[in-house]
Structure formats: structure tokens, C-alpha cells
Amino acid sequence: MPGVTLRACLSALLAVTLVVTAQTLAAARAQPAPAGTMVICAAQGLVTVAVDAQGEPVGPPHICPDGALALMAGPAPVAAPLSRADVTQVARAFDTRARAPLQPFVPFAARAPPRFL
User: Fold this and answer.
1) Are 25 and 68 in contact, with CB atoms under 8 Å apart?
2) Rounded-to-integer distance, Cα 100 and Cα 1, Å
3) Which residues contact 61 (CB under 8 A, 6 or more apart)?
4) How far is Cα 36 from Cα 53, in angstroms, rounded to an integer?
5) Predicted confidence pLDDT, tens digits, the chain (117 residues)
6) CA gap 12, 74 in Å, rounded
7) Residue 38: strand, helix, or coil
8) I need a labelling partner for 112 at 20 to 30 A (CA). Which of 22, 46, 95, 104 fits?
9) DSSP state of 84
């Protein structure tokens, strides 16, 4: 049964992906944050360098992809266009409703300000 083996392979791949991304995220969150930043005026312009508590430069911060599994989602399904028969059936359904009687238009009348002002 090829469907069962494909399902098992996809399940194992998803489980491994969950484990790897969870471990990477945990390791990235455990990294110490830089104590501050130092701005250096270089020939190419301003350069910002992260430094630790002793003033030594540290590497660039690791950006944690909190939603890494969201990137694995496929594109949204596209709705199939309605056929002409479906559109006419919907139009007939709206034509069979009872129509509400029209109300006469009454213009808004201005009112006086309150008496206590």
C-alpha cells in the first residue's frame, strides 16, 4: 500500500521538523543578550556593533523564527468560479422574497438647544 508508506514518511518528516525547529529556537533563546551597542563612524558610514559587559564585540544577534512552521504552509486554496447556472439560481432566490413597503422620506428637522444652556 503506497499510501500508507507515504503517510508514514510525511508524519516522520513533520515530527523531525518539529524537533529540530524546537531545539534551534530553544538554543537561540538561551543565548546571552548583548550588554549594549557601540556606534563607530567608519569610511562607509555609521556602523553599530553589539558589545558584551566587558566591552568586547559580540556577533550579530540571532533572529529567532518563532513561526518557522508557518512558512511550511502551502498557498491558500483558490475558490472555483461559479458557473452560470449557480448565479441564476441565486438571482431567482432573491427575486422570490417579499418586498418591504417603502417608507415616506421625512427630512430631519433642526431642534433648539437645551434650555439650561
Assistant:
1) yes
2) 61
3) 31, 33, 34, 50
4) 8
5) 555 788 889 999 999 888 877 776 666 666 666 778 888 887 778 888 888 888 888 877 655 555 555 556 667 677 777 566 555 555 555 555 566 677 777 777 777 777 775
6) 19
7) strand
8) 104
9) H
E strand residue ranges, the chain: 36-42, 45-51
Q: How far apart are CA 61 and CA 50, in angstroms?
A: 8
Which residues on neighbouring strands pair with residue 39, listed in sequence order? 48
What pTM does this model have?
Answer: 0.30
Which candidate, 36, 39, 37, places its Cα nearest to that of 47?
39
Looking up cell 556577533, which residue turns up?
59
Look up residue 113 and give its three cell numbers.
438647544
- Single-letter code of the amino acid located at 75: P
Q: What is the CA radius of gyration of the chain?
A: 33
